[in-house]
Structure prediction request, 161 residues.
Amino acid sequence: MGYDSLLRDAGEVIKVEVSMREPLLTPVVQSPARTLLLDPISRSAAVPSFPVPCLSLEEAMAEKLRAALSRRDVAIRDFYDIDHAVRERGVQLDDPKLLGLVRRKLTVAGNDPPDASPARLRVLEAQLEAELRPVLREADLALFDLDRAIGLVAGVASALL
Prediction:
């Protein structure tokens, strides 16, 4: 999707990925949609939050792990999201319920087999500057450690064996 930026004299793009290949494994939850945009005077949110239907945290993490392990074209955004969830939300990747959801997602027809090989994951290094830096604030990028994220995903791959 695209929009005309008020800050730059150019259009901007928002990537939206929607997949309806498989049924949800956990119930949908209502979560608040919020903005980072602040009113310059009050410093409060420029748009009030509102509830939207979302994947549960468990399902979202299982889907991110499935994608990190089996996406045909490995994507650094999956590794960033997993690292962020572990670091900021305290997600436990060794949780048996989460691992069970990942296993179920990997059995859906059309998924490639899990692959956490060094050759496949080496592609992520080039994506750091080209795909991650342009969409993150510098402070958020500084907290990301690609080697740690790869280790997290590799640990899940080992736990699934």
